[in-house]
Each structure stands twice: as C-alpha cells, then as structure tokens.
C-alpha cells in the first residue's frame, strides 16, 4: 500500500487539538510551499492565505466559527480568501510574473493573456467570485495531503460566518472574501474522533465505469 493511501487513512477532521504542541517553523514552511505549488485554473492562484497565530485575533474569530475550539487551540489558523471581482489587473500581474520567471517578454504571451481575459472578464462578477472561491479548495487539498505526510492534523472548515470574518480581518477593503478556514496542529490524545472508523461509500457505489 502506498504511503499516500496510508496517510489518507490516518488523517481525519480533528475535533480537539493539543494546544501545547506547535508546528515547527520548518514544517510550516513546507505546508506553505505545498499550498504555493497547488494547481489552479490557468495557474492564476486567485486567492490569498492568512496564517494567523495571534491568540487575540483568533479569539475574535472563534464566535464567527460557531465557537469551535480548534480555532484557538490549533497551532495555526489559516484563512483562505478568494479575490473578488477578479479581472484584467490580476491577469496582467500573472503575465508579468510569467515573463519574469521564464525570461520572456510579456508581449510574447499576449495571446494567452487575451484568451484568459476573454474567458474570465466576460463572466458576471458573481460567477467570477464563485470561481475564485472554488479555487481555494484546490489549495486546501494540497495542504491536507502535505500535512498528512508530515503527520500534522488539519481541520477544514466551512462552518463559519464569512461576512464576520471579512469584517474582523478587513478583507473587503483588500478585495478579498473568506472562503475557507483550516486549523493545523496536532490532535489531542483525548480526541475520541481519531479512533472512529472512516465512513465512505463503497467503490462500486461511488464510481461509474462507462
């Protein structure tokens, strides 16, 4: 059995973190790099990730996350925030980064830039915001897989009030919207959830071969 499958069987949505255990700076950088390397549509990465350690700030966020203890007990709280009203400016920034990274001119990939603008900027703003929000889930998946390899626990959270998190972090002024939360750290030995058997549909029910 591959290590990947073994790690997936090990991980679960941790309900109680050990507040005394902190992720090392080296492992945290590995997790950040895993997020950085995540796939995204066109490679645009239409989001920002806030890594929150400040206990006072996390205490403010906790009520907006239905009072869940993971918000304050985990080693770090990550807020995945999608860019709202994504458009030409962000695409131009990406093209300039591509040119710099690959040692080419922006003009040489103008056709690609124009293609992206045609496909993206013509969408209604609400549809674009939904699209950028979905992209955060791809980044979250990379975080969870990398963390499982390091035996670091992750609890992804949709159970929170985005508008309140937006207000606490001042996200609207930054053109951002809280899409996902994820707490990272180490499971508490008293968290009974870690001993539960995973409940998953059988393969013959989940997959359809055509």
Order of helices and strands: HHEHHEHHHEHEH
**Overall strand count:** 4
Spell out the CATH superfamily of the domain at 17-85 and 130-193: NADH Oxidase
Shape: globular
Radius of gyration equals: 19 Å
The helix content is 40-55%
Amount of beta strand: 5-15%
Return the average pLDDT rounded to an integer: 97
CATH topology of the domain at 17-85 and 130-193: NADH Oxidase
Strand order across the biggest sheet? Answer: 1-2-4-3
- Identify the CATH class of the domain at 17-85 and 130-193: Alpha Beta
Q: What structural class do helix, strand and pairing data support?
A: alpha+beta
In the CATH hierarchy, the architecture of the domain at 17-85 and 130-193 is 3-Layer(aba) Sandwich
Total helices: the number is: 9
Family: Belongs to the nitroreductase family.
Protein name: NAD(P)H-dependent oxidoreductase
InterPro entries: NfsB-like, Nitroreductase, Nitroreductase-like
Domain Nitroreductase: 9-186
Summarize the structure in words.
The protein has helices at 3-10, 25-36, 55-61, 70-73, 88-102, 110-120, 125-149, 162-169, 203-206; strands spanning 47-52, 76-83, 153-157, 176-185. It is α+β, with helices and mostly antiparallel strands and 210 residues long. It has a domain at 17-85 and 130-193: 3-Layer(aba) Sandwich (NADH Oxidase). It has a 4-stranded antiparallel beta sheet with strand order 1-2-4-3, with helices on both faces. The mean pLDDT is 97.
